Amino acid sequence: MKIKPTPRLGMETPEADASGRPKGWTTNDAAVIEIANLSRRFGSKLALNDVSLRVPRGKVFGLVGENGAGKTTLIKHLLGTLKAESGSVRLFGLDPVTDPPGVLSRLGYLSENRDLPAWMRVDELLRYTQAFYPKWDVRYAEELRQQFALDPQARIKQLSRGELARAGLLVALAYRPELLLLDEPSSGLDPVVRRDILETIIRTVADEGRTVFFSSHLLEEVERVSDEVAMLHEGKLLWCGPLDTIKAAHHRLTLRFDTPQARPPVIPGALSINGAGQEWTVICNGARQELNAIVAKLGARIVEEHTPSLNDIFVAVIPKL
Amino acid sequence: MNTPAAAIAWEIWRKNRLVLALVTALLPISFLLRAILWPEAVQLFEAFAVVATAVILFWVFSFTEIDERGRHSGFPARMFVLPVRTVKLVSYPVLYGTLSILLFYFAWVGALSVQWNLNLPRQTILCEAVLPAAIMVSIQAGVWALHRFNWTRMVALTAGATLAGCFIAFSLEGEAWVSRKQLTMGAFAVLAVAYGVALVAVERDRRGNWLKWLERFYQGIFDALPWRRKMFAFPQQAQFWIEWNRRGWFMACVLGIGMAIGLVLLPLSSALYLDSTLTLINFSMLPIMTLWFAGVSGMHLGRSDAWSPEVTLHPITATRPITTGAVVFAKIKVAALVTGLGWIGFALLAYPAMQTVRWYQHFNDDLLQFWSTFPGQHPTLVRWAGNPVVILTALGLTGHGIVEGMCPVLRGQPRKQFWEFALAMTLFGIAILVAGWLYHHQEYMPGFLLLLPWITAAKLTWKWGTAARAFSEAGRSDLYSRKQLSSLLAIWVALTSGVILSAALACVAHSIPVSIILFLAVCVLPGGELAVCASNLAQNRHR
Amino acid sequence: MQIHISANDGVPIYLQIVNQIKYLVAAGRLDAGDEIPPIRVLAGQLLVNPNTVARAYLELERAGVVSKRHGSGTYVSDAGSPLARRERVKILTERIDGLLVEAQHMNVELEEIIKLLRERHQNLTQTKS
After folding, report:
1. What is the residue-wise DSSP string for B237-252?
2. For residue B96, what are the CA distances in angstroms to B136, B189, B202, B210, B435?
3. Are chains B and A touching, using the cut-off of 8 Å on CB pairs and a minimum of 3 such pairs?
4. Which residue, A108, A126, B285, B515, is most buried by CB atoms nearer than 10 A?
5. Whole-number mean pLDDT of chain C?
6. Residue A308: closest CA among A319, A316, A296, A299
7. Count of CB contacts below 8 A, A vs B?
8. Using a CB-CB distance cutoff of 8 angstroms, which residues of chain C are in contact with residue A195?
C-alpha cells in the first residue's frame, strides 16, 4: 500500500533532465492516453461502443462528433469520473480509477459547463486549487489572471460566460500540466475568448512534450490546431488518425456533364452530391485514380478540385449514417 | 388543455402523481388498520399520516423549480415568458393548494369522526379549516418571495412555522389566549396578506425588481466579513476549508439548538404526570434529539456542494489529485469540529433552555422547581451522566452520529438511499409498535425480557461482522492511507470501549433491567460506517 | 511579417504559409537576410498548430527560400542564389499557366494575350517614370 506524501509548495518551474524534458515524466515515448475497447451503457442506450484510440505525446488531438455522440462520456472516462465497464483506459500508463492522484496531478481539465462553485471568489478558487499542485507557478498564474482580466474579488456567480471559461482555463493551466483536457472549450463563447483558448492550446503544445486533447464541434478550429482527429458518432469511432491523412482521403470535385442531368449522378463512395443541370459538386472519399475512371465512365469531366474542409466532410458524412 | 388553469393543474398533478397517490392512499389504509390493530397503534399511524399528508401537500403546492445553475428555487421562472398575467399565474397554484388542503382536511376530519365516533360541532370544523389554508398560502408566499435567499427563507419559514404551531396549539388547548372567533379572523387575515405578498413578490420578480435591497445588504455583509487570505500549506487543509465553508457553523448551531430542544422537552413528563416508563422515554429525548440532529447534519455534510440538492461528487473535488480517503477524512474532521462546537453551543443554551420550564407552569405549578429538584429525584441518573467516561462517549457518539448520517449520502444514489431510509424507518416503527403493544400487555414482559438477549446478540454479531468486513475491505483497497486507516480503527475501538464502559456503569446502578441496557448499548455501538464512507464516496466519484 | 491564412480555402494551411512567404520574398517585401519569426511565435500569431508551421518552414528550407542558422533562427536566403531565382520563376510559371488556361476557356487567342502583355508592361513603365 502506498503512503501518499503530503506535497509542498515551492517548486515553480520543473527542473529538466538532460534531454530537456521535465523530470518526473515518463521517459518512454509511449502514448499519453491509451483507450482500448471501451464500451459504456446507460440504461438501454449504448453511449460508447468499442472505442479504441491512442493519443501520442506532444500532439493536439481533436475529438469531433455531433451532440450526444459520446464525447463528454469519453472524457469522463479519462478523468475517472466514469468507470470503464469493459475495456481499459490508461493515462500516463496509470488507471484514473485506481490511482486518482497519480493521473489527476498531471492533467489540467476544463469541463463544458465549467463546474466552478458559484459561491467562491476568484482568489479563493486560485488558492484552493493551488494547494493540490506542487508545480503551481504563482507568477505565471498572476500573469494569466491579468491577461484574462479577472477581478480576484469577484464571485464566480457574477462572472459572465467568457470570464467563467477564462477562470476555468486559468486554474487548469497554472501548473503547466502534461496533458490539457478540454471538453467543448469554445462552446457559447465570443470570438475574443475563443481566440484566447486557441492560443492557449497552441502555446501548450509548443512547450516541449505537452499534449492537448479537446472535443469540439467548431470544426474550423479543430482543423487549424489539431495534429490528429477522431470522430465519434453514436458511440462508435468512425475515423481516427492524422488530420492530413483524413483530408487527403477526401475530395471535393466539380463535374461538368455535356448534357444536363435530370437526377444526381450516381458515384460510388460519394458522401454528398449537389448541383443542377450540367454541373454537379461531389464530396467523396476514395483513391484519386479510381475516381478519374468513374467520372470518365459517366461521361463528365472534372473542372474543379479542392480538398474539402473538415466541416464539409462532417456535414456530408453524418446524414449518410 | 386549452386554458392556463387546466395547464397548471395538469402540470402539478403530472409532476407529483406518485406522491399524491400515496397521500390519497393513506386514508383507506387507516381504515384497514383500524380493523386489524389496536386503537393506540392506529391513532399513532393516523397522527403520522395527517402530518405526512400536510407536509407533502405543502411541498407539492409550493410549486418551485430550480433554475439551471441550481442557485435557487422559486416560482418557475420559465412561466414568466408566457402570455399570462401574473395574477392568474399566481392565483391558480394558490387556489389549487388551498382546495387540496381543504379537501384532505375535511376528508380526514370525516374519517376520524367516523372511526372514533367523535361528534365535533360543525362550526368548529369550518372555523378550523381556515388554519391549514392560511398555512398553505403563507408557505407558498414565503417560498416564492424569498427564493433567492436560501438561508433567510429557511430561517423565516422555520421560525414562522414554530411560532404558528405553538400559537395554534396553545390557543386550541383552552380558550385562554384568544377566542375561537378571533383565531379564525386572524387566520383569514394571514391568508389574505400572504396571498397579497405572493402576488406582489412574483410580479416584481417577473420584472426583475424584487428585494434587490436585501441582496445588496447581504452582499455588503459578506464582503465585510473576513475571509481566508492565506495560502494552504497542504491539500488536506484546502479540502477541509471547502468542506467546512458555508455550512460548518450552520451545522454546529443546528446541533446545539437541537440538543437544547431535547432539554426543553425534558420536564414534559412531569408536567403531564406520566408514569416512570414513559418518563424514562421522555428523558431519552435528549440523546435521541442529539443523535437525530447529528444524523441530519451528517446527511447535509455528505453532499458535495453545501446548499444544492446535487448528490454527485462535485467535479471541483472529483478532479483534484486527492485520494478519496483524504476527502472523507476532511469530512470527518469537519464532523468532529461540528460536534465540539455543537456541544459548546448546547452548554451555552442549557441555562436558557432550563428556564423554559416556566411554560409548563400552566400544567403544574410545582414545575418551577423541576431543575433544582432534579438531582435529588434522580440521583443515579445524574451520577451516571456526570461520569467523564459517559460524557466523552456521548461526545464521540454524537460525532459518529454525524458520520452515520453522512455515510449513505456519500454514495450519491438518492433513490437507493430513500428506500434504505424508508426501510429503516419502517423497522423503527415496528419496534415502537412492539414496545407499545408490550406496554399494554404487561404479562408478556418477562417473556420478552428473556427473548431480548438473543435479539441483542444477533444485532451485535451483525454490527461487528459488518464492521470487520468494512475495515478489512478498506485495508485491502487503496482508498485510505495506512495512517488514516489506523486512526479510524483507533476511533472505533475507543468508541466501542466507551460504550461498553458506560453500559457497565449503568448496569451497576440497578435501576433498569440489564437486558434492556445491553440492547440499547448495542444499538448505539459504532458499526463499520467510518470505513465504508470511503468506498461509498469512491462509488460516487467513479460511477 | 504579415501573413493571412484561411482554414476554408481548400488549400492546406502549410501550403498557404509556404506560398505567402515565397510571394513576399519574390515581391521584395522580405529582403535577403531578414529573419522570419520562430515557429511558436508564428503559430501563436496565426493560431495554427506549430507542427504545421514547422512543416511549412521545412518546405521553404528545402526550396532554398530560407535557411536555418544553428541556434539563432531562420533567415531569408540570399536573393542572388540560383535556388531563390528558380523559386521566383516557378511562381511566375504557375501564374502564367493559370492565365493561359483561363484564356483558353474564354476563347482568347495567344497573340491577343501577348499584345495585352506588351500594353500593360508599357503602362507600368510609364507610370513608374
Report:
1. HHHHHHHHTTTHHHHH
2. 10, 19, 17, 25, 41
3. yes
4. A108
5. 84
6. A316
7. 98
8. 47
Which has the higher per-residue pLDDT, A83 or B271? A83
The model's confidence at residue B1, banded by pLDDT at 50, 70 and 90, is: low
Where exactly are the structural domains of chain B?
4-224, 235-541
Contact C47 A60 (CB under 8 A): no
How would DSSP label each residue in B468-499? Answer: HHHHHHHHHSSSS-HHHHHHHHHHHHHHHHHH
Look up residue C15 and give its three cell numbers: 501550403
**What is the DSSP track for A47-93?**
EEEEEEEEE-TT-EEEEEE-TTSSHHHHHHHHHTSS--SEEEEEETT
What is the end-to-end Cα distance of chain A in Å, rounded?
49
Strands (E), A221-290: 228-233, 236-242, 250-261, 270-285
- Name A251's bridge partners: A284
Cα(B328)–Cα(B411) distance, rounded to whole angstroms?
12
Mean pLDDT of A115-141: 91
Chain B residues with CB-CB distance to A6 below 8 A = 234-236
Distance CA B520, CA B503 (A): 9
What strands lie across the sheet with A45-55, from one edge to the other?
A45-55, A33-42, A86-91
Cα B4 from Cα B85, distance rounded (Å): 10
pLDDT at A224 over 70: yes
CA nearest A33: which of A14, A19, A54, A16?
A: A54
For A112, the closest chain B residue by CA position comes to B315
Burial class (CB in 10 A: 0-12, 13-18, 19+), A286: middle
* Separation between Cα atoms, residue B101 and residue B113, nearest integer Å: 18
pLDDT value for A105: 93
Residue A12 pLDDT more than 70? no
Structural domains of chain A sorted by starting position, each given as residue range(s) with its CATH number in brackets: 33-242 (3.40.50.300), 249-320 (3.30.70)
Q: Residue A110 pLDDT > 80, yes or no?
A: yes
pLDDT band at A183 (very low <50, low <70, confident <90, very high): very high
% of chain A beyond a pLDDT of 70:
90
Binary contact (C48, A224; C-beta < 8 A): yes
Can chain C be said to touch chain A, i.e. do they have 3 or more Cβ pairs within 8 angstroms? Answer: yes
Model confidence band, residue A27 (pLDDT cutoffs 50, 70, 90): very low
* pLDDT on residue B501: 92
Q: What is the pTM of this model?
A: 0.81
CA–CA separation, A245 and B412 (whole Å): 45
What is the C-alpha separation between C85 and C65, in angstroms, rounded?
A: 9
Nearest residue in A to C14, CA atom: A224
Q: What is the pLDDT of residue A200?
A: 85
Specify whether the CB–CB gap between B57 and B23 falls below 8 A: yes
pLDDT class of B170 with cuts at 50, 70, 90: low
Closest CA of chain C from A299, distance in Å: 20
Interface contact flag, A157 B71, Cβ < 8 Å: yes
Please say whether the beta carbons of B396 and B495 come within 8 A: yes
- Alpha-carbon gap: B323 to the closest alpha carbon of chain A (Å): 6
Min CA distance, B320 vs chain A (Å)?
A: 6
What's residue A72's pLDDT? Answer: 92
Q: Does A196 have pLDDT greater than 80?
A: yes
d(CA B108, CA B47): 11
B486-527 pLDDT per residue, tens:
999 999 999 999 999 999 988 887 777 888 888 889 989 999
Q: Which residues in chain B touch residue A80, judged by CB atoms under 8 angstroms apart?
A: 318, 541-542
For residues A291 and A229, give the distance between their C-alpha atoms in angstroms, rounded to a whole number: 25
B69 chain-A contacts, CB cut-off 8 A: 118, 157
Q: What is the pLDDT of residue A10?
A: 31
Instruction: Using a pLDDT cut of 70, give the percent of chain C over it.
Output: 92
